[in-house]
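Entry
Fold in token form

___
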Amino acid sequence: MIRVLLADDETIMRAGLRMLISDEPDMEVVGEAADGDEAVRMAAAIGPDVVLMDARMPGLDGIAAARAIAGTHPGIKVLVLTTLDEEAIVDGALRAGVAGFLLKVSPPEQLLEALREVAAGRGLLDPAVVPSVIGRYTRAPAPQPRHPALDRLTGREAEVFALVGRGLSNSEIAARLYLGETTVKTHLGRVLDKLGLRDRSQAIAFAYESGLILPGED
């Protein structure tokens, strides 16, 4: 059972999310918070698997609350949900150590799948924001020299990692490399373990920062 804490300042939004999640046989809502401060306190008291966090709330906002939770309770995953895909919000969420970022315009089934992915330890970025995230890294100067941690990867792991960095999904990588999707997931899991990365969003950033992918490289 995936235990979810809701954090949103809009009562009607929380009610809708609670109804959606409670209908799922593998999920339950274990608490609700109306602001970031309350979310941090309840996360510490309840210990949910996932905090579904609105990015913008009065007082302590969702990004700052996510940072506080990730810093003190790394086992609790935070999935940020927002109406905006502004660069500052996306980058702030990633730097805060969130496990996932999803826009509120996403269909219900995508939100539920995102909760499952995040709870399972697999990071998630809304497909709508992946191009802008990658675009910011491709415009940045290439780091020198290439990060030595990349030498820990096998050739196949490096191939999978590079395609993750370019924003491809597991199914797209499987088709590109003629592999099974389960095999791709296995390779990606090993990459994350070897490089000490939390999830897919951190992997995308590190692929560029480490020099595995050079800005402007096809």
Summary: The first helix runs from residue 11 to 22.
